[in-house]
């Protein structure tokens, strides 16, 4: 499925100018049909899956309890 620059910006939650910059810097693959750029939506699938995995990993790390340090002596 192909998206316009505006639809791509909404999908990625960034501005249209940012999408245009990414297209011109070849960080997003796009086709130019003579009038506008068309972006294949499927190229973001892998990236978005990886971002979700990293979010889950970070959440897991943050929720892990801190182990008690055996070197600390109670001086009370």
From TrEMBL:
Superkingdom: Bacteria
Query: Where is the Helix-turn-helix domain positioned along the sequence?
Result: 2-49
**Which Pfam family is one of those matched by this entry?**
HTH_17
Which GO MF term does the entry hold, naming one?
DNA binding
Q: What is this protein called?
A: Helix-turn-helix domain-containing protein
Provenance organism = Bacillus yapensis
